[in-house]
UniProtKB/TrEMBL annotation:
Kinase among keywords: yes
One Pfam family, short name: Pkinase
PANTHER family recorded: OVARIAN-SPECIFIC SERINE/THREONINE-PROTEIN KINASE LOK-RELATED, PROTEIN KINASE DOMAIN-CONTAINING PROTEIN
Chain residue ranges for the region called Disordered: 27-49
Cellular-component GO terms for this entry: cytoplasm; nucleus
Binding site for ATP: K95
UniProt protein name: Protein kinase domain-containing protein
Source organism per UniProt: Marchantia polymorpha subsp. ruderalis
SMART domains assigned: S_TKc
Length: 657
């Protein structure tokens, strides 16, 4: 069967698979009645259930939803992120499950049992439970001859495990209260989730302000548990005994106490700041206990709820304590106190947008998908969120390595193989073994800083490589840029002559000046980071920005998509990093490049530099070298005359035609 306002439809499309309402009634009536059945309260204001849409062919699904990417796959179903075909700005998650073959329809068939679980899950979410803000919401149901299409609201890639490290007293209380209210709501309608764990609780917003319980595949529904029901709901019209009992062991063992114990473990994990594997008395006896509750950031009422109500088996293992009533748990002082969330004091003076960004920055250190929200209004397109780095193959295929000394790859767009780009993977945890502990901690902010500079602060420029796409996963960011084929500047040096060198150097000086006007100091103008894009050496592009810094005090111009006065873009970590910004570093780097052009070779050993080929260059070039070049051909460290980029760009050698 599948739910509809017509009440029953065969899942397989075969009449012989359909149990009649009479048979269902007989099944329910045969069950023993409780001696003291609870008084049932009917919810008359609940929204009506969804109607099922019939598809004549599976191809018709494209008229309703457009697939964007795969979110997950199992033995019997695949879940896609999809766009609403009639409103492309709206995205959902759509699970597609094949119907079992007719010859595998026996009760013992794994496919059939899985299909019954799916049916029960949909009926629970669409018929049994009214909508609740902290329970995943069904948006649409479609049925074809071969498949069932279940459309749900789309959540963030963040789950409880991402929340635990950043949880504090205020946010922990807010999320735990949402969970208790949602589970209490389910239990009132006779539903036990039976699989409450971190990956089954997602966040609808990246600031961890609202969570959603998902995946009711193992949920148990027993009418005799219910104290509330939807108006005119008749269990016999929706469930046969086979459909209620999809897993005999789970059906017999699962009770409301199952969910309550899971809530206890979740509260323990919130207070510990990490996933607690199991609740046991041994948990508090471990050496260097990683699961010790962080009592220093949670108040006494939180500790009381943990130790005396939700997890007494850990702290008082010798006492026999029954599972608490969730209605009473909601009255506990920690949850029944002042309305939550109360805005943190340090955020009171900030705009709502700044508060959002501050939460995103807190998430960023443990989960790079926060970048998708920080750059959600990127003019070109939003960042694509991947569940796993392997998902990259759905978008791009790497074909070869590029740029010696870097990890840049050439790639093709698998959706249009005529499009070829450069691809770079940035890891949240730095891969350089020589990185200090501080550098490792700052790596997520350096990634954000590089994207901020390239996507927001700097306008497009003919000599700066442009970003085409950004894909983010918890631990990696993939930056796809325009492909700049050609030799690096190091390969140009032996061929450099007065005219070609002047042309390329002028482009570089004017580009660096452009960057400085917008407050960006490159900090790493190395010849490997500059590519000559044509065989005649007339055009170059700067292609690496990993060490670039933004200094607001340096900026004399602003890009229309970046408000340097707004707090949403810059946090304390970036302000601290900006203290290292030094325009002299870029000017000295230009001096090194000029020397290498004139010497015809690049060397990393500055103590034994080769002489410039003065016979191949104009005297004006030698004059500029003497002012910005490395010693002994330029000023000593103590004799630096702070020549500005404007003065460099107006130097006679660069003004020559």
């Amino acid at each position: 069967m599948i739910l509809t306002n017509e009440k029953t439809l065969p899942l397989e499309g075969d009449d012989d698979m359909k149990m009649s309402v009479t048979e269902n009634l007989q099944t329910i009536q045969a069950q023993p009645m409780r001696e003291d059945p609870p008084r049932i309260q009917e919810d008359r204001d609940a929204e009506p259930p969804l109607d099922v849409k019939r598809l004549e062919a599976d191809a018709e699904i494209d008229n309703h939803y457009k697939k964007v990417k795969v979110l997950g796959a199992g033995a019997y179903a695949v879940t896609h992120e999809v766009l609403d075909a009639k409103n492309p700005g709206v995205r959902y998650a759509m699970k597609i499950q094949e119907k079992p073959e007719r010859d595998s329809a026996s009760a013992e068939s794994d496919g059939k049992q899985n299909h019954l679980r799916m049916y029960k899950e949909v009926v629970i979410l669409n018929i049994v439970l009214p909508r609740h803000k902290n329970i995943i919401c069904l948006k649409d149901l479609l049925l074809s001859k071969n498949n069932v299409y279940i459309v749900q609201e789309l959540c963030q890639e963040l789950n409880l495990e991402d929340f635990y490290p950043v949880a504090d007293n205020s946010s922990g209380r807010m999320i735990f209260k949402q969970l208790v209210e949602a589970v209490h709501f389910m239990h009132q309608f006779g539903v036990v989730h039976a699989d409450l764990k971190a990956e089954n609780i997602l966040f609808s917003k990246p600031d961890f302000s609202e969570c959603k319980i998902i995946d009711f595949g193992l949920a148990v529904y027993k009418p005799e548990w219910a104290t509330r029901r939807r108006n005119n709901f008749d269990v016999s019209e929706w469930f046969s005994e086979e459909e209620l009992v999809t897993d005999d062991d789970l059906y017999e063992q699962a009770t409301p106490a199952t969910d309550i114990e899971s809530l206890g473990r979740i509260l323990f994990s919130i207070m510990a700041g990490t996933e607690v594997p199991v609740l046991s008395e041994e948990l508090m006896n471990l050496d260097d206990n990683p699961y010790e509750p962080r009592y220093e950031i949670f108040d006494e009422s939180a500790a009381d709820l943990l130790e005396n109500v939700m997890c007494p088996m850990v702290f008082r293992p010798d006492e026999a304590v029954e599972a608490p009533d969730l209605g009473q748990v909601l009255q506990h002082p920690w949850l029944a106190g002042e309305e939550i969330p109360a805005p943190p004091e340090e955020f009171l003076a900030l705009s709502q947008e700044s508060v959002q960004s501050s939460m995103d920055f807190a998430i960023l250190q443990s989960n790079l998908t926060a970048l998708a929200d920080l750059f959600k209004d990127w003019l070109k397109s939003p960042a694509t969120v991947m569940r796993d780095i392997d998902d990259l193959t759905m978008y791009y295929e790497a074909t070869r390595s590029m740029l010696r000394g870097t990890k840049v790859m050439e790639c093709v767009d698998v959706r249009d193989e005529s499009r070829v780009y450069a691809l770079k993977v940035l890891a949240r945890v730095g891969e350089d073994a020589n990185m200090t502990e501080e550098e490792v901690m700052n790596q997520p902010f350096r990634i954000y800083n590089e994207l901020l500079i390239r996507l927001r602060i700097l306008p497009r420029h003919d000599h700066l490589v442009s970003i085409v796409d950004v894909l983010v996963q918890k631990d990696f960011v993939v930056v796809v840029s325009e492909l700049c084929e050609g030799p690096t500047l190091e390969e140009f040096f032996p061929l450099a002559r007065n005219g070609t060198a002047r042309h390329i150097f002028k482009q570089l000086a004017e580009t660096v000046r452009f960057m400085h006007e917008f407050g960006v100091v490159h900090m790493d103008l190395h010849c490997h980071h500059i590519v000559v894009t044509d065989e005649h050496f007339t055009h170059c592009k700067i292609v690496q920005f990993s060490k670039a810094l933004y200094d607001s005090e340096l900026a004399t111009r602003g890009y229309m998509f970046f408000d340097r006065e707004a707090g949403r873009w810059i946090n304390g970590d970036l302000e601290f990093m900006a203290l290292d910004a030094n325009v002299e570093v870029d000017i000295r780097a230009l001096g090194r490049i000029l020397h290498s052009m004139m010497a015809g070779i690049h060397t990393e050993d500055t103590s034994n530099l080769p002489p410039p080929r003065l016979d191949l260059f104009d005297p004006h070039a030698a004059d500029l070298l003497s002012k910005i070049g490395p010693s002994p051909f330029g000023p000593d460290e103590n004799q630096w005359n702070h020549m500005t980029l404007l003065q460099i760009c107006q130097h006679p050698w660069l003004l020559l035609t």
